[in-house]
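Two records follow; treat each independently.
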Amino acid sequence: MVKSIAPDPEAHTPPNGLLFGIGAYFLWGLLPLYFKLLPTVGPVEIVASRILFSLILMIAILAATGALGDFGRTLRDRRTMIAMTGSALLIAINWLVYIWAVANDHIVAASLGYFLNPLVNVLLGVLVLKEKLRPVQIAAILVAAIGVAVMAVSAINTLWISITLAVSFALYGLIRKTAAVGPRQGLAAETLILTPIAAAYAIWLVSQGQAAFGKDVATSILLALSGIVTSVPLLLFATAARRMPLSMLGLLQYLAPTIQFLIGVLLFDETLSRGQMISFVLIWAGLILFTVDLLRSTRAARLALA
């Protein structure tokens, strides 16, 4: 059985990851707006740029905070690096599918994937980390699961997008929660692992005269800033994942797809079928039920300690 580890030793505050989680998911919710600014850049080049510029940023952060020694020890830890290799591959798949979905006007499908993700998080929390659910929470999950089933029927052509995003990020979160590595060292290790592939692709693009980076100032700046856009929410998420129950962290994720959904429908005029609307209603009903039960439980626990 995989066990949850202690809160991140880098942290000097109590292990409350709520604000970190909210910050991560809010920023992720706005990502479609950023990638829509790069309509002429292919998804693979965007992912390669995210990897390369994220590595540069993370090395700078580690150097500025005097953590390069810890990073070196992380790289020499075989067990940790195996875990980071798994998480690196998962996040690369997630990025590629997500950017492809945004570029091809499937923002709603992507948002549905991230609505599905919390259910996968809760399932992993229960099965792998042995987190306990109360009857009301189980009922809430069943209601949301029905919504997901409706979604599957009503959006079968883009279902692969939703499932890939949900499963890849849920497994990524599980690895980052259980791996014995801090948020900064972990993200730096992930980007370093992916760098040879990203660099090789970037070099190939340049050799073929197909690289978007360097062709105009605006595009080059946006690609360079992708390191910040990538690293900041991932650092916030990794910190939150180590400080919160996985099932509770899953609840916060509804913030990101809600923002993405609104962006897709209101700003980019993506169509929303009747089945998708029913799916959203059921998923939100499950979310509200789960949240109310969680708040009542938390309040009762605090009163008991008072």
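The next record belongs to a different protein.
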Amino acid sequence: MNKGDLVDKVAQKATVTKKQADAVLTATLEAIMEAVSQGDKVTLVGFGSFESRDRQAREGRNPKTGEKMEIKATKVPAFSAGKLFKDKVSPPES
């Protein structure tokens, strides 16, 4: 499913126009990206959490030459699925 498909699904479920659904979805994603880029954690109960994580510097290899190289430390976005989301994807066995 791509963004267009998601917009269609949201518009249908919320009984709004596709244009309105697209505007809300775009604003939501931008707000999440902005918050995470500023170091905040965004938690949507039942769905999951978005946060930035520090990736330490490490040694890697150039895939073409095989020579060793230093990969700098950086921050990366991360998502952790919530319990309801996990249970929806893989229902617990009873």
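Discussion point: Strands lie at 42-44, 48-55, 58-61, 68-71, 74-81. How would you locate this feature using only the token line?
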